[in-house]
């Protein structure tokens, strides 16, 4: 498509590479302006890039795929999770092409191999510019259609609430007339606004939108909000959708109340909503909460605060409730990128590193400071942190849930804790429990060959795993592998495989819904009788006996 000169659009670019020579070459050798791009900033690694992406609107990120601290794949995942830039192009050495293919499968736009061919890079830049131009024009077209549609709207419940939140002058009709005519429960007193963003527009959400199931999900979310509201008799609520998957919630007290009491109640309400949506709707959700205001006419101030809080998900991480008041506290405490701290904590846990406990204690103490030592908020925040860690582990290390029953952590009512100390001890127990599983089933961290062998077994528990298959996977001889595995772990490789499979078998049998032959199939065994013999040898009882024992224990609880 050929564009007239007046149609050209300048798009912003960031380059990320740990090699200063590459950065200098790209900065000086490419005529960015002539290609209708603006080279906004350079970054030396992935962490540096995330900081600058939070400070600038970047249309295209050109990044090296192999970097210290955070590689190109991890950077891509963070960019997409927080919607920081629409296009990513990789720079890669020839030996990193398998890594590049992984990035392309995830959705990266393209790549250029090093040493960089100038013409190839220019070709990709021209292609990206064309795509960005099409997207921008479509957005402008949609914007005009939306504006025309909004102009044609007569007064409606949604329009009145939208106008109110955005600070437009209140309609001439009296408040009592509007509330009666349009089913709006508004009072002249205190008010607070929270913005609930459902799905955070991740890949799963986009798929739901494509298949037409997103509205079904939103209906479930609305019902959750309404159900929780019914448990807060002191609150009145008006909901209005501001955009796809974005619901503004206007809360007011139904009777006279002190401002701090109102804030306590709304904080509990939003935390309950967050937890219920996460657990019962199985979707990521972020809530931005504005300041509570004394008068209804200041509702737009609370709404703007909620929007500002929601934007901080790019710094604090999404999938949580963010109150506008937290931001000053977090900045004073230098708590930037707690999402990265969560990721670091998971890395320590999954490597069995004792530093995990110290980091977990520090993170908990930061939570206590950020919540001003309010026990309810500490409990909610700790529960949220455990949920985020569990979610991350589920996504990256799904074998953990096949080896340990975490229901005692997932089904706890955090409101029952009597002190900050109890909450902290429970959180540290959670961290130690996962680490104990890691140390048991990933016993060797410093020998990469043995670690890779154990990881392979854990990720293929449901398959038949033989010594020949393992040696072939690692590209070494069977005898050498057997000797090395025994030397490093103190156990025979096939015994280790059986131990892993039997642990998952115990969890499957404990659930009570699987018959022995089905568990055998799920573990990759061809014959149920062979599985039963192995199970008895490792546990001292048959699968049926074990299943019965577990059922009796649950009945007696």
Q: What can you see in these coordinates?
A:
This protein has helices at about 20-30, 45-55, 70-80, 95-105, 120-150, 155-165, 175-180, 205-210, 215-230, 260-280, 300-310, 315, 325-330, 340-350, 355-370, 375-395, 400-405, 405-410, 420-440, 450-460, 465-475, 480-490, 495-510, 515-520, 530-540, 545-555; strands at about 10-15, 35-45, 60-65, 85-90, 110-115, 190-200, 235-245, 245-255, 285-290, 320-325. The protein has about 550 residues and is an alpha/beta fold. It has a five-stranded parallel β-sheet with strand order 2-1-3-4-5, with helices on both faces. A five-stranded mixed β-sheet has the order 7-8-6-9-10, with helices on both faces. The longest helix is centred in the first third of the chain and has 35 residues, at about 120-150. It is globular. Mean pLDDT is about 85; it is low at about 1-5 and about 330-340.
